[in-house]
Amino acid sequence: MTESRSALGPRPLAAIDVCLAEDDDDIRGLVVAILRKAGFEIVQYDNGQSALESIGTEAAALYLLDIRMPRMGGLELCRVLRATPATRESMVLLMSAEASPGDVAAGLAAGADDFLPKPFSRRQLLSRIERLGLQAAGATGHRSSVLSARAGSSLFEGGSARVADHPPAESSADRKGD
Fold it and tell me: Which pLDDT score, from 0 to 100, does residue 56 have?
């Protein structure tokens, strides 16, 4: 049975929540720390080819991909994910420091569900993931990857980005929300 991506609803759970492909060690480490603290199961790779090779054993609910990486960039990997039956329904969130309207359009044309410009804050990353419908096991007591429709999703909600080379200091408001 084939289902169109526009009719998103409950779907089978993936083996892991997030597959991250990012070649910058600092950004990759920051994203992993943020997502693990939020309760997500995550695997990480430093290039798109390695992430692609993992698909046979570790399908993910969300692929978080840097656009520019060695061996295979995020745009190319996104196209492959959309053409692969095991990952066709997974969500794809592209991220890049190059976030011109043309870059965003190219990402969406490749099949991405959203685009996150770098630099970004912890809150922006988590809100994008939440908007895509992915919840961590820690949020509900069990892993849930119920995907919601993308209607009304604005690509640049969330205010201005801040430099995210280091995790931002947590405020008391941040701790209350976790």
Answer: 74
